[in-house]
Design goal:
Helices cover about 50% and strands about 5% of the residues. The chain folds into 2 domains: about 80 residues, no CATH class; about 60 residues, no CATH class. The longest helix is centred in the C-terminal third of the chain and has 27 residues. Strands 1-2 form a two-stranded antiparallel sheet. It contains 6 helices and 2 strands. With about 140 residues, it is mainly alpha-helical.
Amino acid sequence: MDFETIKQRFDAFWECEILDRPLIHITAPRKHRVYVEIPNVKTLEDKWINIDYILKRLEYHFENTVFLGDAIPQYWPNLGPNSLTAFLGVKWIQTSIEKYKRSEDYTVFRNYLENRLREKLKRVEDLLTGIECSYP
C-alpha cells in the first residue's frame, strides 16, 4: 500500500481534481479467515458502547478484510439505532420517549426531532452549497 499516493488522491478528490485516476475503494473478505475472540455482550446498549467488544469486532474486520485500490482501514463510530438522535442532540431516544407517555406528548417529541433534523440538514445544505465541484 502506497499511503502517500493514496493521500494525494484523496486530497485531489476533495479539490475536485484527479491526480492520476479516480479514487477506487475496494474491500473483500480474505480467503483464509483469522480467528479473533469477540466477547459476548449482555445488553443491547453494550453492543454499541462496550469498547472491548467494539475493538475486538474492529480487529476481526481488519484481520479478515483485504483493502484494495485506495481503500484504507477505517473505523466509523456507529451508535446503532441512536446515531440520528445523538446527531440531533438527544442522549438516548429510549430514555427520552419514556418521558412522553401520552400520545400528544409523543407528537410534541416527534415534532421536536423533525425540526432538529431539518435544522441540521439545512446547515449541511448551506455548507455544501458554496462548494463548486465538477468533473470532466
